[in-house]
Amino acid sequence: MPAKGSIDRRQLLTLLGLAAAVPRPAEAFELPDAAGLITENRHDGVRILSAGGEFVGARGAYYGPPVPFAQLPGHLINALVASEDRRFYEHWGLDPRAMARAVWSTLTGRTQGGSTLTQQTIKEVYLREHSPIVRKLLEEPVLAPILELNLTKEDILYVYLNRVFFGGSAYGIEAAARVYFNKYARNLSILESAMIVGLLPAPNRFNPHRNFEMSRDRGIRVVEQMVETGSLSRSAADRAKAQNVIVTPSRSAWGGFYPRSTGIGWFARWAENEANANSVPSQRSGTRTIATTLDLRIQAAAERQLEAALRQHAQTRKIEEGAVVVMRYDGAVLALVGGRDYRRKEWDHVTQARRQPGSVAKLCVYLAALGAGYTPDTNVSDAALTLGGRSVRNFDDRYLGDITLAAALERSSNTAAVRLALQNARETRDVIKALRVAEEVEGEAGDSALGTYEARLVDLTGAFASVANRGRMVVPYSVQRVQDPAGVELLTRVLPAKSEIRQVLQPQQADMMRQMLAGVVQRGTGRAADPGFWAAGKTGTTTESRDAWFIGFTERYVAGVWLGNSDSRPMLGVSGGGLPAQIWRAVMIDAHRNA
User: Fold this and answer.
1) What is the predicted pLDDT for the residue at 260?
2) Res. 46: pLDDT tops 50
3) What is the reported pLDDT for 103?
4) pLDDT of 579 higher than 90
5) Cβ–Cβ contacts within 10 Å for residue 248, how many?
6) Which of 155, 293, 303, 548 lies 20 to 30 Å from 421, alpha-carbon distance?
């Protein structure tokens, strides 16, 4: 589809007044070729790719890959022409009678089609934000003939079908075919093609996900229009109207399209925010492509295991929400499930929600003690304790006297942890800040031991990753690179060498913590998390079971699980060593299978 030359949008629009009055040769009004028009001035959006390069979602405008004209079904072209512009092959870009009807309807406050497909193409590429009256009276009459002079009729149809909005965030025929029928555009049946064309006058109203019968009736009307124009015989139309149409379940949610699972929406949203935070506004136009760290196999396992647990226990245990995050030792997030149903709630309990971590916070207390010279065999008192007139209670109301640090962590002793926090108050706060768990921890030293401050699941899991990797700083991330619509890289993540990564813990300090956390899974409160291979982790439960956590790591992955209610209502008998540990175990077993 060659072009005779090109002009940019600014140059194009300066021609409007002059072009209407002064005769000029066609060469003076040359446009980009058809392929260039498909990508020019697109609506903003992002395409999300997994770590393996698979397309997993789109936020904002979803454009499928352009479909060459030769691969577009003939009945799709016939349906479009019959429904939208019956004189398309005869006119030179304008249909005076149709234009008169359209202008009159605009002036009288009504809506009536009248633009040719050529005019609609010009509008979609360059004029969609312009005043309808100015566009129809001044701009389209000049630009439509120019487009016809520069492109063939096939080119115009090619550009139009690969650009136009079909509802459901879908722009272009390939996106529409996948969103509504889960197939390639080249495989659309006659009735499916007619239903998609039937969306054009009112994409949201005729959306088959919202009203299948209305959408199908609209498609049948388009089939009849094909008969009227002679592009389809009566017998073929009758067969087409009898075709079985199966609309794929909607994978659209919160301004995005997620063909594999809407649960990927939380990850996609976080990845887009991360990409935006590392770019300037001028780099966010058009459709960008974000290559991420997402592992589809582990993501599916996290979604499956969380949903299975909630399906079985949510009602009886009064659990509304849950969240799971899995990452590598360097912080690359492989899976993220921010809640139970992304269609219902966009709020992300992994990266947005701040909740009290409960006994998970003891990680920082024990790390501070180890940094101050304690060892796993150092004794600490587990005796009853009163602090500021308030009794500090152990979860099981048992008090054993002097026990080792390792034993105290295994049984998640509150009294021992508070004593350690009191003895190492400054060091504990320093560890919390160094591991990026929380910027500030208000209250007394005992509050840092009991986890009464607020933290995010992603940050807590990142802190455990620093222990897993022998003390190196971890900043959880999801973006590997970002490309603009032309494929030019806007952002490429360059990971520093291990020698350049800041140590936030001494390696021997992290090693001792690894040993102690492994004891929690082998002998302590985290036994339900034991996957049958080496694992380490920590349980956490807040007052009245408002939050329940299990966060830990294996030799390969770091993962965190949270259960609770959005409004902080108490759950019924849910503790970190119970259901969260069981979910963690199930996710880790699945993640390591065939890894």
Assistant:
1) 93
2) yes
3) 62
4) yes
5) 15
6) 548
Q: How far apart are CA 256 and CA 506, in angstroms?
A: 43
132: left (phi over 0), alpha (psi -120 to 50) or beta: alpha
- Note whether 251 and 48 are within 8 A (CB): no
**pLDDT value at position 496?**
67
pLDDT tens column, 169-180: 899 999 999 999
Q: How far is CA 391 from the centre of its chain?
A: 45
CA atoms lying within 13 Å on the CB side of residue 310:
20
Distances (CA, A) of 82 to 34, 89, 194, 198, 246: 23, 11, 10, 11, 24
DSSP state of 44: P
Spatial CB neighbours of 216, under 8 Å, sequence gap ≥ 6: 191, 195, 208, 245
For residue 469, which of 335, 307, 265, 332 has the smallest C-alpha distance? 332
Separation of CA 403 from chain center: 47
Tokens representing 17 are 């007044």
Mean pLDDT (whole number) for 247-274:
95
Containing 225, the helix (H) or strand (E) segment is: helix 212-229
pTM of the model: 0.88
Cα angle 169, 173, 177 (rounded to 5 degrees) comes to 80
One-letter amino acid at 502 equals R
CA dist., res. 151 & res. 160, Å (int): 12
Q: Is 535 helix (H, G, I), strand (E, B) or coil?
A: strand
Distance of CA 341 to the CA centre of its chain: 13
CB 120 within 8 A of CB 144: no
Q: What angle do CA 512, 517, 518 make, to 5 degrees?
A: 100
Contact 361, 448 (CB under 8 A): yes
CA–CA gap between residue 3 and residue 153 (Å, rounded): 14
Q: Among 101-115, 233-247, 393-407, whose mean pLDDT is lowest?
A: 101-115
Report d(CA 80, CA 395) in Å as an integer: 69
Q: How far apart are CA 360 and CA 412, in angstroms?
A: 9
- What is the mean predicted confidence (pLDDT) over 134-140? 76
Question: Could you read off the pLDDT of 478-516 as tens digits, one per residue?
Answer: 999 999 888 889 988 877 666 667 899 999 999 999 999
Give the range among 44-58, 245-259, 497-511 with minimum mean pLDDT.
497-511
Q: Please say whether the dihedral angle defined by the alpha carbons of residues 160, 162, 167 and 169, taken in this order, is positive or negative.
A: negative
Are the beta carbons of 576 and 563 closer than 8 angstroms?
A: no
The encoded tokens of residue 119 equal 């005019």
- To the nearest 10°, report the CA torsion of 453, 457, 463, 468: 140
For residues 142 and 158, the answer to whether their CB atoms sit within 8 Å is no
Q: Which pLDDT score, from 0 to 100, does residue 388 have? A: 79
SS3 content of the chain, % helix, strand, coil (to 5): 45, 15, 40
548-573: pLDDT as tens digits = 999 999 999 999 999 999 999 999 99
- Give CA–CA dist 303/480, Å, rounded: 23
Tally of CB atoms within 10 A around 398: 9
CA distance 586 to 220: 49
